[in-house]
Specification:
The protein is built from 17 helices and 13 strands. The protein is an alpha/beta fold. The protein has two domains: about 1-170 and about 355-370, Rossmann fold (3-Layer(aba) Sandwich), CATH 3.40.50.2000; about 180-340, 3-Layer(aba) Sandwich (Rossmann fold). The strands form two sheets. Strands 3-2-1-4-5-6-7 form a seven-stranded parallel sheet, with helices on both faces. β4, α4 and β5 (about 115-120) form a beta-alpha-beta unit. The longest helix has 19 residues, at about 70-85. The termini are close together. Bound molecules: uridine-diphosphate-N-acetylglucosamine (UD1).
């Protein structure tokens, strides 16, 4: 069986690496190829993950780069279609909710090639988010919907998807965490940052921050609300803020570097690699983010997480995990941060099938599909 695994943007790499390795154990059954669209292309947004997650060079690199949603999606479709016509896989597996996900899924179904969507069924019910449109569109056209949690199954069934297309396989991103945990534990990123920025940060004594959602960082007002909150929190706690390319561009565009530079307790650094970032997550006092994946990883690590969004497509991180949503208001962010600084923070448990064995379950499923052909 010929299978293409699609990666494009940073959150895809840690989802496909364990699946790629698991398929490779059965080379007699599966001819698996890795396709990188090139949606993310920087060393620190892409290459470092290939290196650290032991992924080989992609079999096809489409090199599409950045662009508006329409231009980027169209370019991926144009380039990937050529690969599909030439290589003719039996299945294409796409992950998550980025533009590369929906573009490659669309290409494949139109050529009557089967599509499996990994991380299917998640819904924020907020159609102003580009990712929500990507999720809805990809799920609507996929043949096999692999869900990370049972809320995903419910959402899909409510949309009328036949039950036999939906399989609850668990959270594949946790496979990467489980496989790489020892290396993450050994990282010396905290002492490296202390040396570089002349600080004395200790474990459990800092807040780790990531921000890149257009709704938070694409307007000056949004960024100001957030930076004002950081200024207050930084009076009592160190902040570590690895910055996403979209966010740094906007900080420069709105002339907000001055405000960043005057915060003595803030470490403002480039995007950080996988092991180091995991180390920073597991040892943080709490995490402040607008990422999807980090809501899940913090739940797995049992570290309190404040998510700067009005909604989440990952409600299980709230009902079972350590996550809380926070409104985009300076006083709200500061209030929630101090509840954690002065208390213990939210406790949670690890959701069902977030156990490091999702890749194995998926490959077993494909062995059955292959057997039934
Ligand atoms: C994309 C995903 C988002 C995901 C995020 C993780 C979509 C719609 N969005 O958002 O769901 O959470 O990745 O990072 O697919 N840039 C660089 N170097 C890079 C990549 C991007 O400098 O390697 C800059 C470019 O100026 C680009 C901007 O970042 O225009 C945004 O990149 P893009 O891929 O369009 O979206 P993200 O905001 O990264």
């Amino acid at each position: 069986m010929k299978i293409h695994l699609i990666v494009g943007a940073r959150p895809n790499f840690m989802k496909m690496a364990p699946l790629y390795r698991e398929f490779k154990k059965y080379e007699d059954l599966f001819d698996v190829k890795l396709i990188h669209t090139g949606q993310h292309y920087d060393q620190k947004m892409s290459k470092v993950f290939f290196d650290e997650l032991n992924m080989p060079q992609p079999d096809f690199y489409l090199g599409v780069g950045s662009g508006s949603h329409g231009a980027q999606t169209a370019k991926i479709m144009e380039e990937y279609e050529k690969v599909l016509v030439d290589d003719k896989p039996d299945w294409v597996i796409v992950a998550g909710d980025v533009n590369s996900t929906v573009a490659c899924a669309l290409d494949a179904v139109k050529l009557h090639i089967k599509v499996a969507h990994l991380e299917a069924g998640l819904r924020s019910f907020d159609r102003t988010m580009p990712e929500e449109i990507n999720r809805l569109a990809t799920d609507a056209i996929s043949d096999l919907l692999l869900t990370p949690s049972l809320d995903g199954n419910n959402n899909l069934m409510l949309e009328g998807v036949p039950e036999e297309k939906i399989v609850f396989v668990g959270n594949i991103m946790i496979d990467s965490l489980v496989q790489q945990k020892d290396k993450a534990l050994k990282s010396n990123i905290i002492s490296q940052l202390n040396k570089e920025y002349r600080k004395g940060i200790e474990k459990n004594n800092y807040c780790l921050i990531t921000l890149h959602r257009p709704s938070n960082v694409d307007t000056e007002e949004g960024l100001k609300v957030i930076l004002d909150a950081f200024e207050q929190i930084a009076e009592d706690l160190n902040l570590i803020f690895p910055i996403h390319p979209r966010t740094i561009k906007n900080i420069e565009k709105f002339g907000l570097e001055e405000q960043i530079n005057r915060m003595e307790n803030l470490i403002f650094t480039e995007p950080i690699g996988y092991y180091d970032f995991m180390h920073l997550q597991m040892n943080a006092k709490f995490i402040l983010t607008d990422s999807g994946g980090i809501q899940e990883e913090s739940t797995y690590f049992g570290v309190p997480c404040l998510t700067l969004r009005e909604n989440t497509e990952r409600p299980i991180t709230i009902t079972e995990g350590t996550n809380q949503l926070v409104e985009l208001k300076t006083e709200e962010i500061v209030k929630k941060a101090y509840e954690i600084i002065n208390g213990d923070g939210k406790k949670g448990k690890i959701p069902e099938l977030w156990d490091g064995k999702t890749a194995e379950r998926i490959v077993n499923l494909f062995k059955n599909i292959r057997g039934n052909k």
